[in-house]
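Students often ask what a holo structure prediction actually looks like on paper. The answer is less mysterious than it sounds. You provide the chain, you provide the ligand, and the output is a string of discrete structure tokens encoding the 3D arrangement of the protein together with S-adenosyl-L-homocysteine.
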Amino acid sequence: MAQGLDPPIAGAYGCRMSSYPINGAVLHLKPGRDKPVRGRHPWIFSGAVARMEGAPAPGDLAMVRAADGQSLGWATVNDRSQILGRMLSWEPEAPVDEAFWRGRLGEAMGLRAALPDLGLRREDGACRLVNAESDGLPGLVIDRYGPYLVLQALTAGIDVRKAALARWAAELWAEAGGRACAGVYERSDVDVRAKEGLAEAVGPLWGEAAPDVLWIREPLGRAASDATVDPPQAESLKPGTVLLPVDIRSGHKTGAYLDQADNRRRVARYAAGRRVLNVFSYTGGFGLHAAAGGAAALTQVDSSGPALALAAQALARADLPIAAPELVEADAFQQLRRWRDEGRSFDMIVLDPPKFVMNAGQLAKAARAYKDINLLALKLLDRGGILATFSCSGLVSAEFFQQILHGAALDAGRDLAILERLGQGADHPVRLSFPEGAYLKGILGRVA
Ligand code: SAH
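The corresponding structure tokens follow.
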């Protein structure tokens, strides 16, 4: 199906083989290995597969059958991946055709349209529109930044259809968001593609090219409402919002950490009057919100020069009443250790490190890294200080993260009281049948 379109089929499986899209490919599960699929988990590991009937190319569709012959639904398949099948539908009778894909994209956008406070119709808003498995579209991520969409194809099943998906998403987004889509850009430069036998892919998929830097507007914690359409106003600082710079062509992920948008707003509510340290700042989103929320001073640390250059642009553009913010390009572990040795202190610290755990084998080492960085932060905080600390490693559970933090607090000789538990925003929903979709956890606590 390299052309990326599955021709429509009429009626049930097998009744019109001539227009059948997949040469009758059937994935037969081993006896007793159908339980996860019946539980609506979307992944079929190669070890659960007895045999593949037909010779589907990577990304093709296959009917999934239990050992007793019962048809369970449709999956895209890829024999180069350990996850051989990705369930798309649990309706064997219904075709996976253009209407199916459009339906799924439309549902995902409908979910965002129903979210309070997301501001889907704001012209310079940003959010995740499609969150892969959690939106019934394994392997597909689509983020929206103002008039541009950024698409990530994480699996062969999505990769072979991405041109059509980009076109449909642009069209459906225009309906859901009430404004035209300017362009869809691909950012499939992610390591997981190697596990699917796919090379990295970056570039325009549809429409016009995005500018070097896009500015997206995020509401502040105390903003009354961001759910309405913007009234026409001066472009720079609308009351109750900040502008964040996004480089969709070479920024991290699809350009920004949209999963932290809610938390930037929530955490900054505590910033007033505090000397804030934002560690692993990227383009400085938490810091910008904190400064706008009345922070007395701001220091941001990141190892990425380009990210800090954007952070500087954002602060200059916002022109907030705060003493010259300090931007430090350094390894966070070394820098915090240096400041600890110098006896420096802060009243609020945000720790939002990158993913430390890629596989279960790295768990112990990552736990030590989380403990280390949190211990250092706790030592830099004065009594009454606020720590907002995160882990985006899916393999570190919320309970385990809390235990690590407890260990760090004990070693630092501090007590930490949890004020708020934080997670990914509602535009990154988690399906009960796919608990792996919950990866971001955070604790906002007060140091005693
Ligand atoms: N808080 C940010 C997202 C942080 S992502 C936001 O809200 O937008 C993690 C960041 O950590 C990245 O910007 C990455 O450049 C940085 N990073 C990774 N390893 C680092 C290290 N050892 N020291 C400092 N920064 C690091």
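The chain is about 25% helix and 25% strand.
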